[in-house]
Design a protein that fits this description.
With 284 residues, the chain is mainly α. The chain has one domain: Orthogonal Bundle (ABC transporter involved in vitamin B12 uptake, BtuC), CATH 1.10.3470. The chain has twelve helices and two strands. The longest helix is centred in the N-terminal third of the chain and has 28 residues. The chain is globular, with a radius of gyration of 18 Å. It starts with a helix and ends in a 12-residue tail after the last helix.
Length: 284
């Protein structure tokens, strides 16, 4: 039981980081970013390249990786998404193309073999009788800090208030003088940065391959469907449900069956409550 609680908390925290970034850009800009998984993969590969090729210490490499991917997210928003924002289908296609392009570039540069990223914490700890690696505990703690910091930013800063205003009524916010284009870029940076941070944190205990962004994208999409598109609390609740469901099934059955949970969760939610737990236009 202790193992399920701890491992479930770790995977739920990582899922929450992915889902919050995914739902944030939808809640503010009303776009579904299918390049979100690519940001996750870029975070893992950037920290790998910095440590293995350029011999940058691990902690600075992690910070640089998150910042670089956040900057790449701003570039994607300004160059590719912004000119097409009026067409949701066009945005879907351009973000999908971006994700596929990133995967192919990673394949060409690094090859198809799995890469190893060193752990920031090498020790193994025993918690309530369950053995867990220090890197997983670090991922859990860092996820809490990042999500907590994001909540404080949204609730207690002027930029956070501007983001909330745009998410509630973009046209009225523009009339009040809020620069919507800058807010969209900022939100894309936050979304890409949180996805990259998730990739950096799990890279030491997950397989780092060019296609590693696909499954997290599916998980994030499943979570926001279950929680409600545009709802950050819904995304966190969905991440907890999905993370613990997968952990229980993996411990009691097999990891292969655990991967089906996200698909079943989406199907059941669409049948029972299509708007998700908190509805499509839920407030942050």
């Amino acid at each position: 039981m202790a193992s399920i609680l701890i491992y479930g908390a770790v995977i739920s925290a990582v899922y929450a980081m992915l889902a919050v970034g995914f739902t944030l850009i939808f809640g503010v800009a009303r776009i579904l970013n299918l390049a979100h998984g690519a940001f996750y993969a870029l975070g893992a590969y950037t920290v790998y390249a910095l440590t293995a090729i350029f011999h940058v210490p691990l902690l600075p490499a992690a910070v640089i990786a998150v910042g670089a991917v956040a900057a790449f997210g701003v570039l994607v928003e300004r160059v590719l998404v912004r000119p097409l924002r009026k067409s949701q289908l066009a945005v879907l296609m351009i973000t999908l193309a971006t994700g596929l392009m990133v995967e192919q570039v990673l394949l060409l540069v690094f090859g198809s073999e799995a890469r190893n990223v060193p752990s920031m914490v090498d020790a193994t700890f025993t918690v309530a009788g369950a053995d867990i690696s220090g890197q997983r505990l670090l991922a859990l703690a860092a996820s809490f800090v990042i999500l907590g910091g994001l909540w404080l930013f949204m609730q207690h800063t002027r930029l956070g208030a501007a983001i909330l205003a745009i998410s509630q009524d973009a046209e009225a916010a523009r009339y009040m003088g809020i620069p919507s284009d800058r807010i969209y870029s900022l939100v894309m940076a936050i979304s890409a940065g949180t996805a990259a941070a998730a990739g950096v944190l799990v890279a030491p205990f997950q397989t780092v391959i060019p296609a590693m962004g696909l499954l997290p994208l599916v998980k994030a999409f499943a979570i926001v469907i279950v929680g409600g598109l545009g709802s950050i609390p819904g995304s966190i609740l969905g991440a907890l449900l999905l993370g613990y469901s997968e952990t229980i099934i993996a411990f009691e059955g097999s990891i292969e069956w655990a991967q089906i949970v996200s698909v079943l969760a989406v199907l059941i939610t669409l049948i029972v409550r299509p708007a998700g737990f908190f509805g499509k236009r839920a407030a942050f």
